[in-house]
Amino acid sequence: MKKVFLFVFFCFAVSYTYAGGYGVSLQSQKFLGMAHAGTGLYLDGSAIFFNPGALAQQQNKWEFTFGGNALFAKGYYQNPETRAKSETDNPVGTPIEFYASYKINQKLTAGVGFYTPFGSGIEWPEGWEGRALITNIELKTYFVQPTLSYAINDWLSVGAGLVIVMGEEVVEKDIPAINGHLKLEGKANPSYGYNLGVYLQPTEKLSLGINYRSKIDVTVDNGDAIFTVPSALAGSSFITNDTFSASLPMISSLNLGVAYRINPQLTIAGDVNFNNWSEYEQLLFEFNENTHLIKVQERNYKNSITGRIGAQYLVNDRLTARAGFYYDPTPVRENFFSPETPSMNNLGFTMGGSFQASKRLGIDFSLLIINGQERRVGYKADNFWGDFRSFAISPGIGVTYSF
């Protein structure tokens, strides 16, 4: 079977880990308010994602958590010589998350999570200078994670989850040399990985967490590759209705977290994410019929480390306030930049809170602002260069119900 390392699924990888790109982490309203510093702290059922080991800390028999965000993102490009400008016109993203967990006994807790960390797209304007690399991406990804968590003793618990990934995509780019266009459509086969966690609480005030998310190989078989070309080339130089197969390793990550309860009202938390981007080395296009279009594109990504810090303050019995900040450096080297995923050094500012409407029902809200710092970068092999920057804002709301 022919395979292509296709950039579409690079976007899946961006979403699954924490690393820079258009994918952002939106798996919890509570933890988003604290910059997603959730590895060393238990707040709710979203521990299924952040640290399965912490899920055993659940006190209620049942807990259900549901939330969603509206994601507004923009990318900006300027040619440093001609000063020509372009900006994306992206659709509004609507990622959601849902967690359900059940405390079987004092030691064992089971749960399942469903989240869609990237449910939007990137759309560059018609005729823009990078149209040979990308004009449009529409992505939908679905993650399902059944999880078990076990409390070994009062201060140590462990957990593990099976991660199941599915998705679908539409990708479009121009072929300016022949005044043509390419549209790729495909569905990802179910792919599998795992999520492991250890949670420690050596003192009443201090808690620690270790989380590892495995690499996941995502594949597509017999996706549609539709070429629009001048009639003189159709059927001779190009098979207009082609197919393709694809495979990409979604990178692994190791996450360390710590939380400290300064007093009964104030808790601070910090995370460090080690993202193994060096696993992404090249991009290879290979179609089943149009084999003359095969072109290897070097990526040579470098590993990155993301730092996060957040705080939670209990205002009163019903109201909780949160705030956080993170720095997410890009894994993309300046000579290997491509605008299908315009990755910058990102500064993330977050805030949020919770309102306990009743003993069983809580309402959570969050706000994320990402400033992608401007970079002069390009893809050297194609002699494509420019100044890129990005900006995103994402308000969110959720509910937690327990009994």
UniProtKB/TrEMBL annotation:
<dbReference type="Pfam" id="PF03349">
    <property type="entry name" value="Toluene_X"/>
</dbReference>
<protein>
    <submittedName>
        <fullName>Long-chain fatty acid transport protein</fullName>
    </submittedName>
</protein>
<keyword id="KW-1134">Transmembrane beta strand</keyword>
<dbReference type="InterPro" id="IPR005017">
    <property type="entry name" value="OMPP1/FadL/TodX"/>
</dbReference>
<keyword id="KW-0998">Cell outer membrane</keyword>
<dbReference type="GO" id="GO:0009279">
    <property type="term" value="C:cell outer membrane"/>
</dbReference>
<keyword id="KW-0472">Membrane</keyword>
<dbReference type="GO" id="GO:0015483">
    <property type="term" value="F:long-chain fatty acid transporting porin activity"/>
</dbReference>
<comment type="similarity">
    <text>Belongs to the OmpP1/FadL family.</text>
</comment>
<keyword id="KW-0812">Transmembrane</keyword>
<keyword id="KW-0732">Signal</keyword>
